[in-house]
Amino acid sequence: MPTTSTVPVSLPLPSVPRRRRSREEVEAAVPVEGPKRVLLAAPRGYCAGVDRAVIAVEKALEHYGPPVYVRKQIVHNLHVVSTLEERGAIFVDETDEAPEGALVIFSAHGVSPAVVRSAEQRGLRTIDATCPLVTKVHREAVRFAKDDYEILLIGHEGHEEVEGTYGEAPEHTQIVNSPEEADTIQVRDPDKLIWLSQTTLSVDETMETVRRLRERFPNLQDPPSDDICYATSNRQAAIKKIAPQADLVIVVGSANSSNSVRLVEVALEYGAKASHRVDFASQVDESWFEGVATVGVTSGASVPEVLVRDVLSLLADYGYGQVDEVVTAEEDILFSLPKELRATLKEKGDSSRGLGGRGARPAR
């Protein structure tokens, strides 16, 4: 006789599209005082390192054909990843998930020497799309470890970039996750100490961490040049200028994008009444507009401009048609494509795209 299970079974409910309230309904709920406007941050979106990495995958697919394997997300953006997947890119967590002899691209966040060795041992062909600014930090770690310095790496443990940098000199490196950790960390020799950082951190929080470290270790040395990348600094500077005037700030970017998440935090710290992160315009909640006259808009360094345009279009539907761009810096940095790819492009006579950076490609 069959038995009847008493264990409850949870079945997913079918998703029902949410009815978005109209502009009139939102304005009736909480009237807006004053004219509606958008303050659009500039710079925003793609940086040179992200652009370079995305082009690398696109060109690899074009010249080698799919599948092209990519270790981790090439950049931290859902739209970019899904678009490349549709074209034949396969994203894997580790190189051993790719078949022997396959072409594997290392993401913009960088990899440790152990990952490179693993790929070599399995006979994988590789293209290193690590952002040159991340590579700079790797080289600093190698240099100072060779000179027997202890490295305090300011960053988020578990982030791909931090894992790669730490892997260059694990026996010489400690990760400092926050200003609070700076108060308790113990070091081997306080007179032979240097700090490095993840490139996508909050500038203010990083400097606070360094301040606390230096209070305890006065001889702590600075890196030869800023580790926080120009794009992260510039995007934070732009939102700092906008935030005090904004009733609401919308940051376009993915949840695993460190620099996008930091922009939400910076907006709130510098006076925005509310700040939210979205991947897509469809995730914007129209209730955020209740009583809101000024909306600030920006995007993380891995976000294509088309996603920002979608948000601006939605805002226009709710009466925020006036868009004033707030420019705090001009970016003209370009990076050459990875050397492994440049050789192939030269061989095939492809001169259509050899650089990555702002203004080097049309908005997509």
UniProtKB/TrEMBL annotation:
Disordered: region residues: 1-22
Pfam families: LYTB
Record field: catalytic activity: dimethylallyl diphosphate + 2 oxidized [2Fe-2S]-[ferredoxin] + H2O = (2E)-4-hydroxy-3-methylbut-2-enyl diphosphate + 2 reduced [2Fe-2S]-[ferredoxin] + 2 H(+); isopentenyl diphosphate + 2 oxidized [2Fe-2S]-[ferredoxin] + H2O = (2E)-4-hydroxy-3-methylbut-2-enyl diphosphate + 2 reduced [2Fe-2S]-[ferredoxin] + 2 H(+)
Cofactor(s) named in the record: [4Fe-4S] cluster
Pathway assigned in UniProt: Isoprenoid biosynthesis; isopentenyl diphosphate biosynthesis via DXP pathway; isopentenyl diphosphate from 1-deoxy-D-xylulose 5-phosphate: step 6/6; Isoprenoid biosynthesis; dimethylallyl diphosphate biosynthesis; dimethylallyl diphosphate from (2E)-4-hydroxy-3-methylbutenyl diphosphate: step 1/1
Gene3D superfamilies referenced in this protein's UniProt entry, alphabetically: 3.40.50.11270, 4-hydroxy-3-methylbut-2-enyl diphosphate reductase, catalytic domain (3.40.1010.20)
Annotated [4Fe-4S] cluster binding sites: 47, 131, 229
Superkingdom field: Bacteria
EC number: 1.17.7.4
Compositionally skewed regions (Low complexity) per UniProt: 1-13
Entry keywords, A to Z: 4Fe-4S, Iron, Iron-sulfur, Isoprene biosynthesis, Metal-binding, Oxidoreductase
Binding site for isopentenyl diphosphate: 76, 109, 159, 257-259, 302
Binding site for (2E)-4-hydroxy-3-methylbut-2-enyl diphosphate: 76, 109, 159, 199, 257-259, 302
Enzyme active site: 161
UniProt: dimethylallyl diphosphate binding residues: 76, 109, 159, 257-259, 302
UniProt GO molecular function: 4-hydroxy-3-methylbut-2-enyl diphosphate reductase activity
UniProt similarity note: Belongs to the IspH family.
NCBIfam families: ispH_lytB, PRK01045.1-3, PRK01045.1-4
Known function: Catalyzes the conversion of 1-hydroxy-2-methyl-2-(E)-butenyl 4-diphosphate (HMBPP) into a mixture of isopentenyl diphosphate (IPP) and dimethylallyl diphosphate (DMAPP). Acts in the terminal step of the DOXP/MEP pathway for isoprenoid precursor biosynthesis.
Name recorded for this polypeptide: 4-hydroxy-3-methylbut-2-enyl diphosphate reductase
Taxonomy of the source species: Bacteria, Bacillati, Actinomycetota, Actinomycetes, Micrococcales
